[in-house]
UniProtKB/TrEMBL annotation:
Stored Gene3D superfamilies: 3.90.1150.180, Type I PLP-dependent aspartate aminotransferase-like (Major domain) (3.40.640.10)
Alphabetical list of Pfam families matching this protein: SelA
Coiled coil: none
Major localization class: cytoplasm
Keywords attached to this entry: Cytoplasm, Protein biosynthesis, Pyridoxal phosphate, Selenium, Transferase
Catalytic activity: L-seryl-tRNA(Sec) + selenophosphate + H(+) = L-selenocysteinyl-tRNA(Sec) + phosphate
Stated name of the protein: L-seryl-tRNA(Sec) selenium transferase
Cited InterPro entries: PyrdxlP-dep_Trfase (IPR015424), PyrdxlP-dep_Trfase_major (IPR015421), SelA-like (IPR018319), SelA_trans (IPR004534)
NCBIfam families (UniProt xref): selA
Reported function: Converts seryl-tRNA(Sec) to selenocysteinyl-tRNA(Sec) required for selenoprotein biosynthesis.
Biological classification of the source: Bacteria, Bacillati, Bacillota, Bacilli, Bacillales
Enzyme class: transferase
């Protein structure tokens, strides 16, 4: 009970010199400071009441202990919530870490259009109002072979818009084997329900035939929808109907054929031995009326969704009320336009996502070995190079692994979870994988300019461990 009485009053804490310096440095409101110390003292009180107080908590140390805990939380609260990190997970398109990184030239384009007024909806030729829909449409048409295209804020929005515009109150036929769920519990069936379209399931989980689609078409059928299962694979006793057959059937029955392609590659990955993932161009040339796909996955651009296809359908979408609700801003258009330009001029290796996917494993091995040789003598930490596998991620190419090399790090004093936490709390944060009581830093997703930071942080952690032990 003496420890409880030793918990200092909040008014005494906030007048401590260390707290006042922190308040002045970060311009922290007094209300925030008081809230932090109320939380800290309440947590310490609970620990004491549970009889779980650390041995170094004494009547004499309680004031400094409370100050240190308060300082840590105050500084932590001032950290920007959205901040850059070093991705050592080996997952190229990491949804939790912001998916695709933009090309340097795309970042510069964003800076240019946000640093001044722009031609977002202004036609320089006629000196009159223009349409943002025209900004990147020609590039998309050239790259995909589509007659027209529209950009919305992500692919989920694209799916919702297509279904709402063309199938509200009508049936949409989907194979049971394609009723997928992706990250965040996003289900095709639920988005269809929200759009007002009626789901008509055909086939079985593992087998769907052309006759299943044909027999399901009725007077209130508006669309046949294929959903590309880019986030999982099904093997064994399976059968599905190719998009050429589906599009031809839809045409003969006067209904719309639509494919949600998801990851949306604009290059044929099979020619590089990566995957049989269809390109948008291949889907368009199969005869499908409408295709939608993400921009921030295999295209390597900003968050957005593209709907491409027959002009008569895209024109309807441009006039739809949802076009304004789901439209993207000038920064997205600037980044997307530059990303598409790089694709169009065959400079796609400058797009970080694609560059990282195609990174040579021997280049990665050399990078890890170079970092190891540049590390100072480590006492507590031990490091080694290990062959490993990376993945594309982002719900794309689930059956594709990318050979890579990792820096495997272990500590004699810290658990692997605690070591990963130390890396994560660095600035910038270093995000690693933890497996088999080892911290893995996969160098496929670590850029050359980040190597020096890795070296410095590991050296600092090793030094701090030795200093406190």
């Amino acid at each position: 009970m003496n420890l409880l009485r030793a918990i200092p009053a909040i008014n005494r804490l906030i007048h401590d010199k260390r707290i006042q310096e922190t308040i002045n440095r970060y311009h922290i409101p007094m209300m925030t400071v008081k809230d932090v110390f109320r939380r800290v003292t309440d947590e310490m009180r609970d620990v004491i009441l549970r009889d779980e107080a650390p041995s170094n908590w004494t009547v004499d140390t309680m004031f400094d202990e409370t100050i240190q805990r308060g300082l840590h939380e105050l500084v932590d609260e001032q950290r920007q919530r959205l901040q850059p990190v070093i991705n050592g997970t080996g997952t190229v398109i990491h949804t939790n870490l912001g998916r695709s990184k933009l090309a340097h030239s795309a970042v510069e384009r964003v800076r240019m259009v946000t640093d001044s007024y722009s031609t977002l909806e202004y036609d320089l030729t006629y000196g009159a109002r223009g349409s943002r829909h025209d900004l990147v449409e020609e590039r998309i048409k050239a790259l995909t072979g589509a007659e027209a295209a529209i950009v919305v804020n992500n692919n989920a929005a694209a799916v919702y818009m297509v279904l709402s515009a063309f199938a509200k109150g009508y049936e949409v036929i989907v194979s049971r084997g394609e009723l997928i769920e992706i990250g965040g519990s996003f289900r095709v069936s639920r988005i269809m329900e929200e759009s007002g379209a009626k789901l008509r399931e055909v086939g079985t989980t593992n087998k769907t035939h052309a006759s299943d689609y044909e027999s399901a078409i009725q007077d209130d059928t508006a669309m046949i929808m294929k959903v590309h299962t880019s986030n999982f694979t099904m093997q064994g006793f399976t059968a599905s109907v190719d998009r050429e057959t589906v599009s031809q059937l839809a045409k003969t029955q006067s209904v719309i054929s639509y494919e949600d392609l998801g990851s949306g590659s604009l290059i044929d990955l099979s020619q590089y031995g990566i995957s049989q993932e269809p390109s948008v161009n291949q889907v368009i040339h199969s005869g499908v009326d409408i295709v939608s796909f993400s921009v921030d996955k295999l295209l390597g651009g900003p968050q957005a969704g593209i709907i491409a296809g027959k002009k008569k359908y895209i024109d309807q979408l441009k006039r739809h009320q949802l076009a304004r609700v789901l439209r993207v801003d000038k920064m997205t258009y600037a980044a997307l336009d530059e990303t598409l330009r790089l694709m169009q001029t065959d400079e796609w290796h400058q797009i970080p996502t694609l560059h990282t996917i195609f990174k040579d494993e021997f280049t990665i091995e050399e990078a890890v070995n170079t970092v190891i040789t540049k590390l100072p003598h480590l006492i507590d930490l031990s490091v080694a190079i290990e062959k490993t596998n990376s993945q594309v991620g982002g719900g794309t190419l689930p059956d594709v692994t990318l050979p890579s090399y990792s820096l495997a790090v272990q500590s004699h004093s810290l658990s692997s979870e605690r070591l990963a936490e130390r890396l994560r709390k660095n600035t910038p944060a270093i995000i690693a994988r933890v497996e088999n009581d080892t911290v893995w830093l996969d160098f496929r997703t670590i850029d050359d300019h980040e190597h020096a930071m890795i070296i410095d942080v590991l050296a600092d952690i090793d030094q701090s461990i030795n200093f406190t032990s």
